[in-house]
Design a protein that fits this description.
By secondary structure, this protein is of the alpha+beta class. The chain is 63% helix and 13% strand. The strands form 4 sheets. A 6-stranded antiparallel β-sheet has the order 5-4-3-8-7-6, with helices on both faces. A hairpin with an 8-residue loop joins strand 4 and strand 5. Helix 8 packs antiparallel against helix 9 and helix 15 packs antiparallel against helix 16. The longest helix has 74 residues. The termini are far apart.
């Protein structure tokens, strides 16, 4: 068997095996399908020198050659189809029509195949073989010469327009198919030149090697580790089985001379020895091959693992997030990284930190976004190229929306971060600067990092919340201290007011008793102005005294004993105090209950404190709605209504303010939780204290209902006073 036949057989086995192997990994993937079909056709076409060499006659050689040419006439169409799938334009209607047209031309050649006008015969002139062309054969050469170079040109154009790991894929794809094109041209020209410069099937073997390298190194078909293991297995056991066979063939004469009739025992013994050590050699070589293939990823893993250990010690949230993005971008050499965390107040995932190069990051992602739903459901990283490929294979609108969202985020990979079952946020990663792809090992490492980061972030958030809570407690303690000082302060202030009142009153009396008739008009006018000013001082002193009295009344704990009181008493006392904080003229307070509403058994001071909070919170909610929506003819309204219920009086306090978001409804009575814009406006203690006043002290009930942008209502149930 000569070099042409041997290279033909090897090329056929390698290309056909590669095609079936790639197809078996992802049967439904159109890229795998089109590549596998092309590789199998190339493999069968490359068998031409081998089948014509082993044919027993020229007639059989012609028959075998024509059978092989069935694969040849479909190869240009299949290759053209694969290239257009690879560069992502196969879904366009025009390209699909063109591809179908080319397959139709291939079918037309199929009908000519067994006509002497296409292939007259086969030249078998050692060591090569070639077809004897008919009059239609140049048409096939023209068909091949247009489609294949044009498809390779499309790869080249796309290569220059793209970047990242995609560019590396296309680089090797272009090189491999350019070499395969050279092999095809050599075979076709042999029909006219009656010979080949070199066996063209050697170029096809080289094509298979380059494409396989692209699969391994740049995840052309996402089967790198599998094909590496398979390649190592084939290589090792080819040597184990082939070496004894080669010894038996090439050294047979020498072995017979040396060992006589038992010469065959030596090749057999060599095979047994190699078969014994073969598994150990395979394991060793496989481990070394994978170490080399995954060396960079294992370096990431080690570095990121060390970094994740120290993350939980960092208490400053912003510093922690900066560290995570810095480690990821520098260690893995990524062009862009960003971290989004869930914000319960906004019910969105908010961009916390990003490291980018000329990219504009989305500031927020809604919690009902398709990307959020997808990662929560699947709990695994999202790869943009895979999602994009799915859009080509599927008509599912959700996949198309997912691809659009990842494109808006400029994300090559999205890594979800879970703390047990709680989805805390996600990490967005851009392309690697090296142009390499994200391997499965990369994604595993990033998932581990995201889990560690989730724990570290929760610790940092807890620490910051604890600091904020301590500040709120300190503020509450200061307010409580002021409350305890209220008696002394009010006494001192009232003494000053009393002194001012006496001074103003005495001066007014003096002016009234003084005869000013002899004074000029200017002096008399000035005296009247002074008198009016002193009267205003007296009036303001009286009002100041009332304010101090109200503060004292509000801050006093009040008697522990309960009394029969009316709802009007509660509201009147509350409005008397709240008017100094809330501009009551800007809102309508509606008492929607009858005058004969039953009295309740309650502590007046405590209930006034509760209603003070209701009105204060409602006023803030109304102000926020005004600022956000700027609605015409909108006016704040607080309605108080009642109805008897099972021996209790149900009191409903309802406002038409901004309302509370659904995500915050369950937290509204939680200590230190506040929906107000800043801690300066609220400590988050008010509603917690109110619930204790109603439920613990009054043995009543309190519930809460709210709809965002519509308003809020508190429902109280308090015991009705028993009539004597």
């Amino acid at each position: 068997m000569n070099i042409y036949a041997i290279s033909s057989l090897l090329s056929g086995i390698i290309c056909i095996s590669l095609g079936f192997f790639v197809y078996s990994r992802k049967v439904k993937n159109i890229l795998n399908q089109s590549f596998s079909f092309t590789s199998i056709l190339i493999g069968f076409w490359s068998l031409f020198p081998f089948v014509t060499y082993i044919a027993p006659s020229d007639e059989k050689a012609l028959f075998y050659g024509r059978l092989v040419y069935i694969a040849a006439i479909f190869t240009p169409s299949a290759f053209f189809h694969f290239v257009f799938v690879m560069i992502g334009i196969d879904k366009r209607k025009l390209e699909k029509t063109i591809i179908k047209t080319f397959y139709f031309i291939s079918v037309a050649f199929l009908f000519l195949l067994f006509n002497p006008g296409f292939i007259k015969g086969v030249i078998r002139r050692a060591p090569y073989s070639a077809v004897i062309p008919g009059s239609f054969y140049p048409l096939f050469i023209l068909f091949f010469g247009i489609l294949c170079p044009y498809a390779i040109y499309q790869i080249f154009i796309t290569y220059w327009k793209t970047s990242g790991y995609r560019k590396n894929q296309l680089r090797y794809l272009f090189l491999g198919f350019f070499i395969a094109l050279g092999g095809g041209i050599i075979h076709l020209l042999a029909a006219y030149l009656h010979g080949e410069i070199i066996p063209h099937d050697l170029l096809l073997i080289l094509w298979a090697v380059i494409v396989t390298y692209s699969i391994i190194k740049h995840r052309l078909m996402d089967i790198s580790v599998v094909i590496t293991r398979t390649g190592v297995f084939v290589l090792i056991y080819t040597l184990i089985l082939g070496l004894p066979f080669a010894v038996a063939v090439w050294l047979r004469v020498w072995l017979i001379e040396l060992f006589g009739a038992n010469w065959w025992m030596w090749p057999l013994g060599l095979m047994a020895a190699l078969a014994t050590v073969g598994p150990f050699i395979y394991i060793y070589v496989e481990r070394k091959a994978e170490e080399r293939l995954l060396r960079e990823q294992r370096r990431y893993q080690q570095t990121l693992k060390q970094a994740s250990v120290g993350m939980t010690r960092i208490r400053n949230l912003h510093r922690l997030l900066d560290l995570i993005t810095h480690i990821v971008t520098k260690t893995v050499r990524i062009s862009y990284a960003a971290i989004y965390l869930y914000d319960a107040q906004a019910d969105k995932y908010v961009l916390q930190v990003s490291r980018d190069k000329g990219r504009v990051s989305l500031p927020t992602v809604d919690s009902d976004n398709v990307l959020i739903s997808y990662v929560i459901k699947n709990r695994e990283p999202l790869i943009y190229e895979e999602v994009k490929r799915q859009t080509e294979d599927s008509q599912d609108p959700e996949i198309k929306l997912l691809e659009e969202q990842m494109r808006l985020l400029t994300a090559s990979v999205v890594i979800p971060s879970f703390l047990e079952d709680k989805f805390t946020g996600f990490i967005v990663l851009g392309d690697k600067i090296s142009g390499q792809i994200y391997t499965p090992d990369d994604l595993n490492v990033f998932q581990v990092l995201a889990s560690q980061a989730a724990l570290a972030i929760e610790n940092a958030q807890f620490y910051e919340e604890a600091k904020e809570m301590q500040g709120q407690i300190a503020q509450a303690e200061k307010m409580a201290t002021i409350g305890t000082m209220a008696d002394g302060l009010s006494h001192q202030i009232n003494n000053r007011f009393y002194a001012l009142s006496l001074i103003a009153g005495d001066t007014i009396d003096t002016i009234k008793l003084t005869d000013t008739s002899a004074c000029s008009e200017d002096i008399q006018g000035m005296i009247k102005s002074i008198s009016r000013a002193l009267e205003r001082i007296q009036a303001n002193v009286m009002q100041g005294g009332e304010v101090v009295k109200g503060i004292l009344k509000y801050t006093r704990k009040g008697e522990e004993s309960f009394e029969d009181i009316t709802l009007d008493q509660v509201l009147d006392g509350t409005l008397e105090m709240v008017q100094y904080k809330v501009k009551l003229s800007d809102i309508d307070i509606i008492r929607n209950y009858p005058k004969d509403t039953p009295k309740i058994k309650a502590n007046l001071i405590q209930l006034q404190e509760a209603f003070f909070n209701f009105i204060d919170n409602a006023n803030d909610a109304i102000s926020e709605r005004k600022q956000l929506f700027k609605e015409e003819n909108y006016r704040g309204k607080i309605t108080v209504s009642t109805s008897p219920k099972n021996g209790n009086l149900e009191i409903i306090v309802e406002d038409n303010g901004i309302g509370v978001k659904e995500s915050n409804l369950k937290k509204i009575f939680t200590p230190f939780f506040t929906t107000k814009a800043s801690s300066q406006k609220g400590t988050g203690l008010g509603l917690y204290v109110i619930r204790r006043i109603i439920t613990d002290m009054h043995k009543g009930k309190i519930s809460f209902d709210s709809e965002y942008q519509r308003g809020t209502r508190f429902i109280l149930e308090l015991p009705i006073a028993k009539s004597e």
